[in-house]
Amino acid sequence: MGAVHLLPGMTFSKPIDKKSYESEERAVLTLPELERWLALQIAGVYHLSVHSALGETPLAAWQKGMARGSHPIRHPANAQENFF
Asked: How far is Cα 66 from Cα 61, in angstroms, rounded to an integer?
């Protein structure tokens, strides 16, 4: 997810790297815009790109695992109770 470092207003991994870079002044995305960007990066780029450890895309690995049917998807009994 190195693309996040290309976004305007990004912060650095370490405060010392930030130096005089004013993230707040350079930020141009609203929270909903950032959420949309992140969702598109995950669903549209990461899941469709070959993963070095898997040797295939995460989507393909998921589909193979689901086709095997060895482990059913587990859902919380009550999503509200299990949220944070």
From this structure: 9
The answer to whether 38 touches 46, Cβ cutoff 8 Å, is no
| Nearest residue to 5 (alpha-carbon basis) of 30, 31, 23 | 23
Token couple for 15: 């405060």
CA–CA dist 49, 59 (Å, integer): 9
- Digit-by-digit pLDDT tens for the chain (84 residues) are 578 777 777 776 777 776 777 777 777 888 899 899 999 999 999 999 999 999 999 999 989 988 887 677 777 777 676 555
d(Cα 17, Cα 50) in Å, to the nearest integer?
31
Q: How far, in Å, CA of 57 to CA of 23, rounded?
A: 33
The dihedral formed by the CA atoms of 24, 25, 31 and 35, expressed in degrees to the nearest 10: -90
Residue 79: count of CB within 10 angstroms of its CB: 8
